[in-house]
Amino acid sequence: MKLAAVLDSLDVPAGAPIYVHSSMDWMGRAGIAAGEALDALLERSAGASFSMPTYPFRGSYVDYLRSNPPPLDIARTPSRIGLLNELFRRLPGARRSLDADIPISSYGPGAEHICGSSPSGELPCGEDSAFCRVIGHGGFLLGLGVSANTNPLIHYVDYLFRDQCPLPLFTEEVFELTVIDGTGAVHRQRRRGVSDAVQKAIRPGRLYRVSERTPCYFRSVTVNDAHFFRVDLAPWFDDAVCHAKGRYRDGRLPCWLATDEEAP
């Protein structure tokens, strides 16, 4: 099956900004190759921004920060979270955010704004982050061959309610990181990572199951056991903020942070 047909079935319009998470292992089960996938996504997003995470690590975020990682060179350090992500990072004209730990790459109109011109602050996924700017651009989150729980943009919602959350959302440790920009200039970055407890417990897909608003922004299909979904980011963000506000008002955690016993 061609990815273009999957995007049609998900009702992803042409010319809309997209932010993509993918697994080529699972997409391959649906008969989709990496080169064809990249071409289809570039064609679908033509005239708008196309963004993907290009993290330099797999596994635990906190373990990576504690490993005293080498400087991240935005032009040379590979993405280690998937073949499609690395192909996208190498795309001529693609930009990459100046974050030593969780950079996002972006292509097309708006890419320069999404990636920014300086490292983001001590708390990841905050108001000065590429994650916040991706949400601000609107458009769609696409999950290609990944679980509906694949949505790190939810960390921005948690950031907004950080003073109300009883969980340790971020590490107490502050890590000193280094990133090298496209001109060779060196930037220092202080960072507190998303805590391991949150990384292991968070289930963003729960919101799609419990919210009455879900049908207006979420759609999914399955092809040969590979899962594909799209999320319309503007109504999703409004729904997530409304849900979190109500749950904290009632003395409860948002559904994506709740334990299995507490979750709806």
Structure description:
The longest helix has 17 residues, at 233-249. A hairpin with a 7-residue loop joins strand 4 (95-96) and strand 5. The chain has 264 residues and is α/β, with parallel strands linked by helices. The protein has a seven-stranded mixed sheet, sandwiched between helices. Strands 3-7-8 form a three-stranded mixed sheet, with no helix packed on it. Helices cover 32% and strands 18% of the residues. The protein has one domain (3-249).
Note poorly predicted spans.
none
Count of helical segments? Answer: 11
| Percent of residues in helices | 25-40%
How does the major sheet shape up? 7 strands, mixed
* Major beta sheet, strand line-up: 4-5-2-1-6-10-9
Q: Note the overall shape.
A: globular
Question: What is the element string, with H for helices and E for strands?
Answer: HEHHEHEHEEHHEHEEHHEEH
Mean pLDDT: 95
Number of strands: 10
How many distinct folded domains? 1
> What proportion strand?
15-25%
**Computed Rg:** 18 Å
Structural class: alpha/beta
**How far apart are the termini?**
36 Å
List the topology elements:
Layout: H1 3-9, E1 18-22, H2 24-29, H3 34-44, E2 50-53, H4 61-66, E3 72-73, H5 83-89, E4 95-96, E5 104-107, H6 111-115, H7 130-137, E6 140-144, H8 154-160, E7 175-180, E8 186-191, H9 196-201, H10 206-210, E9 218-223, E10 226-232, H11 233-249
Parallel strand pairs: 1-2, 1-6, 3-7
Antiparallel strand pairs: 2-5, 4-5, 6-10, 7-8, 9-10
Helix pairs in contact: 3-5
Notable traits:
globular, 264 residues, 10 strands, seven-stranded mixed β-sheet, 18% strand, alpha/beta
